[in-house]
Amino acid sequence: MPTFTARDGTELAYHLRGEGDPLVVLPGGAMRASAYLGDLGGLTTHRRLILLDLRGTGDSAIPADPATYRCDRQVDDVEALRAHLGLERMDLLAHSAGGNLALLYAARHPERVSRLALITATPWAVGLPVTVEDRLSAARIRADEPWFEEAYPAFEAAWTGRGPFDDAMMPFFYGRWDDTARAHMAAEEDQTNEEASALYGSTGAYDPPATRAALTGLPAPALVFAGELDTGPTPDLARRTAELLPGARFTVQPGGGHFPWLDDPEWFVRHVMAFLTEP
Asked: pLDDT per residue over 19-36, tens digit each?
């Protein structure tokens, strides 16, 4: 397992999967170990994935200062990884909450990004939060699903602050609630650093006006990828994110949830690779 040293001395780990040109991957969670990404639906057939375990997650060390879990303070970790890999510029793919780290990195180091792929990314960094009504409206679209009657009250209670986040609500995060989705969900408990997750987007992490302004000049092509059934970000919110990035490609995966590579791996890989290989 390869490692490198962050600017503050924290030892960070990353995992190599697949063959081909490198693709640096930032996980979501927030602050979930990269293991849940797997091979991203078979993307490893085409690219060599470099999956970073963010500080305090997976095989990366816990930092001496918990304040460094804040999203903007981890931009230096991504830059340290790029330098460690010896890449002048890099293709960068980020999932969910990791999309915020990717956006902040692109805003601070635009010259280091060759392509930027945001996969079901929650765009807090550019001032586009997912509202409770967004989530509930998207969830109600699935009223015909056999699990809806049990799952929806738990989902509603969790997002309105009247109940815990528990397993009963999890079908809404997947386009298909099958054995693959259940196994993926079951692994989550041991993969997330809860302390780090709470600090990731804490006060001071984001400056949306400054980030938006910086991204208007981003020279790298961008992909904003949404799942049709995702409750956050919804396709509409993802579309609004794409409008902030010059010339961004906006793609919605039919039947996709928050982890679209599980719902239809072939569709996911085909469309991500079309973006990564376009002239």
From this structure: 999 999 999 999 999 999
Q: CA–CA separation, 270 vs 272, rounded Å? A: 6
pTM across the whole model = 0.97
Say yes or no to pLDDT of 189 above 80.
no
Coil, strand or helix at 20: coil
**Inter-CA distances, 53 with 107, 136, 165, 180, Å:** 21, 31, 24, 23
State which H helix or E strand residue 108 sits in.
helix 98-108
User: Three-class SS string for 30-62?
Assistant: CCECHHHHCCHHHHHHCCEEEEECCCCCCCCCC
Domain 3-131+179-277: assigned CATH number? 3.40.50.1820
